[in-house]
C-alpha cells in the first residue's frame, strides 16, 4: 500500500508540473486563455457509432454560418502568423478546404466548443496506413493552441478498415527542416470511443505520430477513451497518442519524435474480444524503434483492460512510467486494472518495469 508521504509527494509533483505547463501555455499566446462555459443548447454526441469514419462534417460547409463559440478571439487574432482558427467550423475545415491545408501553420486564437458541431471527424481523416509520414491523410503542419482550450470533442468511430482516431488522425513529417508540431493546447471534456473490427488506434490527441514530430505543452484535463476490440487488432489505445510506429521504408524512424510537458487526467479503457490489444496511459504502443525523447510527463487517469473469452494477445501498462522508461521527471498517480478471461475480479497490473536506457523503448 502506498504510504501517505509517498502519495503526497506524487500529488505535489503532479500539481507542480501541471502549474508549469499551464503557465507556459499562457505565456506562449499573446492573450490569456478564455474560460469555457459550454452552452445549454450544445448539440449532444451521436448516440450511435459513426459508420463512415471520414464523413464530411456538416458544419464544415462554407455556406453555413459558424457556430456560436464560448470565447472571444484574441486581440491579435487577425495578425497572427499563419492561419488563425477562431471557431469550431474553421477547425473542422483543416484538410477539407483548400484554404486550410494539412501542411499549414495554424494558431488557435479562441477557446472553442466542438459540441456545437453536429459531427466532427479527425483532422486528416481517420483512415490511413500505419507509420506514414506524408500523403493526403497526414497532418504535417503546425498547430499552436496558444494556451487555449478545445472542449466537447466527441469521436465515435467503428470501422473494419485501418483507422487512427483522435483530434488529429495521423501526424507526421519526412523533413527534418519542416517538422510537424502540436503545442500549447488544452483539451477538456473529450470522449473517444469505438468498436474495432479492423486495425485501429485511438487516443484523445493523435491517432498516430510518425517521423519528425514535436508534441509539447499539452494538457488533457477530462474525458475518456473507451474502445472495444470486436474482431480486429488494436495497435494502441491511450490518452495522448494511439501509436508511434514510423514506417522505416520511408527513410525515417521513430527517433525524431519528441514529446514534452504533458499532463493527462482521463480514463482509458480497452476491451479485447479480437486479436491484439495494446492499452496504456500515455502512448498505446511504440513499434519499430525508440522515440527520441519523452520528458516531463504527468499521467493521472485510470487505465483498464478487460479480456473476454476468445480474445487474443493483450498488453496493458498503467501509464507512461510503466510502458516507457528513461525519461526525466516522471510522475504517475493513476491506477491500472485488468480483468481476465471470463470476467474475473480486477487485479493490479503489477509493478512498473524500469531500465537504464536513455530513451523510451519500443515493443
Report on the structure:
This protein has 363 residues and is mainly β. The protein is built from three helices and 26 strands. The longest helix has 25 residues, at 4-28. The protein is globular, with a radius of gyration of 19 Å. The protein starts with a helix and ends in a 15-residue tail after the last strand.
Which SSEs are present, and which pair or pack?
Elements: H1 4-28, E1 83-85, H2 88-92, E2 105-108, E3 112-113, E4 138-139, E5 142-151, E6 154-156, E7 163-165, E8 168-173, E9 180-188, E10 190-196, E11 199-202, E12 206-211, E13 213-220, E14 223-229, E15 233-237, E16 241-244, E17 257-264, E18 267-272, E19 277-279, E20 283-286, E21 293-299, E22 303-307, E23 314-316, H3 320-323, E24 331-332, E25 336-339, E26 347-348
Parallel strand pairs: 1-2, 2-5, 3-5, 4-8, 5-9, 6-10, 7-11, 8-12, 9-13, 10-14, 11-15, 12-16, 13-17, 14-18, 15-19, 16-20, 17-21, 18-22, 19-23, 21-24, 22-25
Antiparallel strand pairs: 25-26
How would you sum up this structure in a few lines?
9% of the residues lie in helices and 35% in strands. The chain is mainly beta and 363 residues long. The strands form four sheets. Strands 1, 2, 3, 5, 9, 13, 17, 21 and 24 form a nine-stranded parallel β-sheet that branches. A seven-stranded mixed β-sheet has the order 6-10-14-18-22-25-26, with no helix packed on it.
